[in-house]
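tool_call predict_complex ligand=DQA
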Amino acid sequence: MNVLVVGKSVKVSNLTPVSILLLHGPNLNLLGQREPGIYGSLSLQDINNLLIETGQKLGAEVSPMQSNHEGALVDAIHGSLGLHQGIVINAGAYTHTSIALRDAIAAVNIPTVEVHLSNIYRREEFRHHSYIAPVVIGQISGFGAQSYVLGLQALVHHLRQ
Ligand code: DQA
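tool_result ok
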């Protein structure tokens, strides 16, 4: 199926839609102005739009959410139960500190993909450890905004299997 969206044609999947929570952690609201040499020039809104559009091609409805607060991210993960079939998460710095986020992902048992704009293994040593990695399907790190796109593709592929 082809759908015309403001002058350009986007191929939309005919498959049964899946619902995906796109979760962004602390400081990612400042994307575009925050250390652009590391995180790129796209804003959070740009990334959300990119993921919504990518989702349309894959037959996935993407619901973005960002918070700087650990508890709000935990609540969002809990709120996915019965609502979303998968989660794409960039937990930001909470990746390296939060047992609560890891436990929330394990508790809801919803297939989750961890993404990072930067390659966390090429950076400071404190970024090399992810508390989340053991409870997600997989992790994509280092491809800028493409990390999100690749993460969404991998998640939808996993859910359709
Ligand atoms: C990040 C990497 C983290 O170490 C950092 O704290 C972030 C962003 C990334 O997307 O590269 O906030 O998750």
